[in-house]
Design a protein that fits this description.
Elements: H1 2-18, H2 26-42, H3 47-68, H4 74-94, H5 113-137, H6 139-149, H7 151-156, H8 161-187, H9 197-210, H10 215-231, H11 233-236, H12 239-253, H13 257-274
Helix pairs in contact: 1-5, 1-8, 1-9, 1-10, 2-3, 2-4, 2-8, 3-8, 5-6, 6-8, 9-10, 9-12, 10-13
Length: about 280
Amino acid sequence: MVGINIILALSLNLITGFCGQISLGHAAFYGIGAYCTALLAKIGMPLPLTLLAGTILAGGVGLIVGLTSLRVRDDFLAITTMGVGFLFVGIVRQQDLLGGEMGISAIPSSGLGKIGFLLLVLVFVVLVTIWNLFVKKSWMGFAFDAVADDEDTARLLSVDVAAYKLAAFAMGTALAGLAGGLYVYFARFIVPDDFGFIMSISILSMVAVGGIGSVAGVLSATIILTLMPEFFRFVSDYKLLIYGALLFFVMRFAPGGMAGFVRRLFLSARSSSGAGP
């Protein structure tokens, strides 16, 4: 589950962390990948094809949402994506083909065994992490930074803002779909509430607490926030309260998240060690 959440958080980091596009409905694309994978697995399709189909479908829907969101930004974009999340859950609940409120159960196993499936998830975690680092340091990452900082200035510098926003949405939502497909084979049972607004906020918390745009920070925060309810059972009953408090604290006192806090400590230590008599 830690590995699946890392893929999910890094997928949002591509959209929000790198390109500055706030998404409050990211769990919908996680759900699209999950439901597509579950339905195809139920009819006997092999794991590679189900994961690929879920990834492509989530990325395709993300591209459509990106197209409809090109004319909005900031708060309006957040509200638009939040609406997509509510729309997805509402549609799933009303469709008997998708299991309705009862969800989809008895999903076939991956066929890889526990160790084999764990290794598969770890491989995807490594690949998605490498992709995030590559994008961050590439020309695409610099263009994303320009869009995130100031779209109007980016246009003046001949940056195709629409194209890069669409690229961020397509990549991020496709990877969310991949995480959804892996979750299906892990849980083997899904319900609409697994992909609701609360899940979207949980994903955003992992990105914000780790440090928006920081790959290492997002990795660290995701591991901590996923394992915390497991090691401290009393925390699980108050998970949403804790996530809300963490978001408030980070936005108010540490906008750079864990990564920014560690960076400041490091610079402070260097400054102190270099300040001799």
